[in-house]
Amino acid sequence: MDLGIENYTGDEVIVTHFGKNFCIKIPRKKDGINNNEILQKFNMPNLLGLFRKDMLDDLKCNLDQIVALDFSECGLHDLPQQLCTPNLKHLNLAHNKLKEMPLCLYSGKMNKIEYLDLSNNFLTSCDEEPDCVLQLKKINLSSNCLENLPAWFLEFRCTNLEELDYSENKAKHFSFLKNSTNLTLMKISKLKLKNSCLIDTDFALLKKFRYLEYLDISNTSNCISDNYINNFKEIQQLFQNNLWERMKILNLAFLNISFFPEDIFRLENLRELHLNNNNISWLTDGLKLLINLQILDISNNGLLVLSNEIVHLNNLKILKASHNYLEELLGLPPYLETLDLYNNCLENLNHINIDSLNSIDLELNYIELINCSEYEYKRDYYRNSNCCQDREQGAKIRTSVSSHSVWSSCDLESETSELSNTNLQYLNVVEENWDDEEVENVVQFSDITPSDDEWDGDDKIKQNCCIKKSFVQKNEDWIFVDAD
User: Fold this and answer.
1) Which of 63, 101, 177, 374 is the most buried (most CB within 10 A)?
2) Is 427 domain-assigned?
């Protein structure tokens, strides 16, 4: 299959068959070379060549059979109308150079798209309503330059929309949604607003999405500017008087939370809770109320101890608590499969059953795990699965404490005795005797005697010590006259 460019053969295009349908995808990498490098000569005529009739004949398909196109990371500036495929349902144009919505979305032919990914482009506006607005179920607009949500979204034109990702755009406020009554009618179940400049007054907006099952209002560690981070002062208000009976996944990472929001316990159907990279120092006993919780991430906090109530979470499968200050465990859930306690202060393996776990990481604790091949296998498996292969290995080394670092009464006596036998001249210390000192250069006044410094019980002030008041005559109007 010839696409019309040098060193670019049909083998570099992935064609997946779905019965009589096809998915055409250009891979992100080929032999270690990025797509942008491969497609430097892949201009628009060459892209159109992908849909030539003779090429489609070789694939034994036609435009009507193509249901998915993945042109992510292709350096595209537009996608013309010639690429319109009437039965297309999945279109991925992420990581390109689009500044406007692709023209093909307004051709009148692509009205069946259900999934549209335009993330990581340079879009500044997308107010014009695409042909697929009524069929659209998932849209990703994250990492663009948008300042407002699309007008067709606000007007509730996308009645079937289920998932919206509007993270990391340029919106500085969401006051334009304050009086919107359409939000309560939307069926959105998944909402992602990372680094979206949300504040406490936006809680009312979030609560309007009553069908939410997935909510991500976290920040990321690589946010380009503090001007766009989500900044909440009273996070517990978000969980008061809401209608999130279906909430299953909640991400509150990097929000500078200093306490565990107790009203989270109202979300009885919660499956995943991500509170990593905050300032939480303890977990409340109400944690046991999250009986359906399966994943709990509390890593990178300031935890000193895990509540014993965690043993009542019978459905918990994954517990991530790395980078804390845990010294001991009071218990663990009975059916735990994955345990991450990397970089804590544990001194023993109490309540940790390595045999019952599928993956685990206990490095950088005060625990020596020598010749434990099963642990090493499960540790490596966890690190490979969670992309943390760069973690250190081995136990923490206690910092040596000198004999005089911690003081006791015995230490104080020995130090005092040792100091008394020390040559004071060697320490450049000169003994002083204040009783023998003579006052020098003291000015003597004839009317002042040593008895003046003694109190004889008489509270009367001597006349010669009184301060004379300046005399001012009455009716001195000149005092109140403005100076020239």
Assistant:
1) 101
2) no
